[in-house]
Write a structure and sequence with these properties.
Low-confidence stretches: none
Number of strands: 12
Helix content: under 10%
Strand content: over 45%
Structural class: mainly beta
Order of helices and strands: EEEEHEEEEEEEEH
Radius of gyration: 20 Å
Shape: globular
Distance between the termini: 27 Å
Mean pLDDT: 91
Number of helices: 2
Length: 189
């Protein structure tokens, strides 16, 4: 995870990433709005617009430092102080997922915020139960516009599937070696 420091029409920048709690599962749901143009009683054209990507991340447990980074809370001298003024920070989120062939898919979502997670506590009974925590993020397109061929678009995520890389994909190969050291961008000439 990296805190986003600038997200405007000309510049996108983020801090150096820090590791969030250990992930157990990640469920990604990307939502698009589709509008239909009808003429002569049939669909003539459609317009598809990206709305958001919701990521539900199940983690072992958010540390007080994780919580402070996500929600701009005060964490000092071992105390996490939650206040009425705490607000979710805009962040970028990265992860990798191991595939059946042993290679990874690498992912960065550029701009989003986390919902304050539920916290539950359970007493120890006859045997211990593993407890985890779920954090839901909502990601949206960043404001910076880029050229994609002849079109101008706003990116919301970037992925590299290690098992699909060809010899000429040198930039993507280099990016996966640095994936968690900085928010990754596509390289253009």
């Amino acid at each position: 995870m990296a805190a986003v420091t600038t997200n405007d029409a000309t510049t996108y920048a983020a801090e150096v990433p820090t590791r969030l709690a250990k992930a157990i599962t990640a469920t990604v749901k990307e939502t698009f709005t589709v509008e239909y143009l009808y003429s002569d009683d049939e669909v003539e054209d459609t317009t598809e617009t990206f709305e958001k990507a919701e990521i539900e991340l199940e983690v072992n447990r958010l540390t007080p430092g994780d919580y402070a980074l996500l929600f701009d809370s005060l964490y000092e001298n071992g105390f996490l102080v939650k206040t009425e003024g705490d607000r979710a920070r805009e962040v970028a989120l990265a992860f990798r997922a191991k595939q059946n062939n042993g290679k990874y898919e690498f992912v960065w979502y550029y701009a989003g915020k986390a919902d304050h997670p539920e916290e539950s506590y359970e007493t120890i009974k006859d045997k211990k139960n593993a407890q985890s925590q779920k954090v839901t993020f909502t990601f949206y397109a960043r404001r910076k516009e880029e050229k994609f061929g002849e079109e101008t678009r706003q990116a919301y995520a970037i992925k590299v599937d290690e098992s699909q890389l060809l010899e000429e994909h040198a930039e993507a190969k280099k990016a996966i070696t640095e994936w968690f050291s900085a928010v990754q961008e596509r390289k253009t000439e």
